[in-house]
């Protein structure tokens, strides 16, 4: 099964899509000290995104594993699945080693991967973590995807389908980042203040069909989460594409 894409500039739901230039809008957020976020609210068209949602919701072998958090076992508060190219080192997070399914098992994932590669020239993702949030209680707590197998400055591309949910970022408390930007003593005090006091919390509402990219030192210096939301009654599916180092192809 493979889906054909309609370009995002020709949506068939004019009510949701405001049309024209807005479709290709990319917001960039410089978090400072070499960390950046890109956000493309209408990465995939409304209709294609629902097709992907329906396919993933019914075909992916979702599981809700038991993981370890702060030394205690608990059921992960969302469904999950892992897809990876052959020959990669195994992923282990929170004491859990997910089975790696093949891209060939779920061909529409290859279509989404291709669209992500097109949007992010030079990217070469070889693994994918899928999450399904079945309601507002499902969530992912504060964490960073800083596993060694992703290297020191991983690029992580996150595609969302279905229910809109908030994605929060906050600066890591014990930061190991580089010293703040160099300041010039010639500048007035007001300007200096502006330069060195970066905002240390950010929030995005991740829309159906959107793409958010974390880059640079975001995993080293920031944490992210999708908190519980009482009002989120319907399902959301999120795909995070990652590059694992150390495989057959490096
Ligand atoms: O669902 C999301 O938007 C984020 C998921 C996430 O952070 C992860 O899988 O590591
Ligand atoms: Fe994450």
UniProtKB/TrEMBL annotation:
<feature type="region of interest" description="Disordered">
    <location>
        <begin position="1"/>
        <end position="23"/>
    </location>
</feature>
<dbReference type="Pfam" id="PF13532">
    <property type="entry name" value="2OG-FeII_Oxy_2"/>
</dbReference>
<feature type="compositionally biased region" description="Basic and acidic residues">
    <location>
        <begin position="180"/>
        <end position="190"/>
    </location>
</feature>
<dbReference type="InterPro" id="IPR032852">
    <property type="entry name" value="ALKBH2"/>
</dbReference>
<dbReference type="InterPro" id="IPR005123">
    <property type="entry name" value="Oxoglu/Fe-dep_dioxygenase_dom"/>
</dbReference>
<dbReference type="InterPro" id="IPR027450">
    <property type="entry name" value="AlkB-like"/>
</dbReference>
<feature type="region of interest" description="Disordered">
    <location>
        <begin position="172"/>
        <end position="192"/>
    </location>
</feature>
<comment type="similarity">
    <text>Belongs to the alkB family.</text>
</comment>
<protein>
    <recommendedName>
        <fullName>Fe2OG dioxygenase domain-containing protein</fullName>
    </recommendedName>
</protein>
<dbReference type="InterPro" id="IPR037151">
    <property type="entry name" value="AlkB-like_sf"/>
</dbReference>
<feature type="domain" description="Fe2OG dioxygenase">
    <location>
        <begin position="124"/>
        <end position="245"/>
    </location>
</feature>
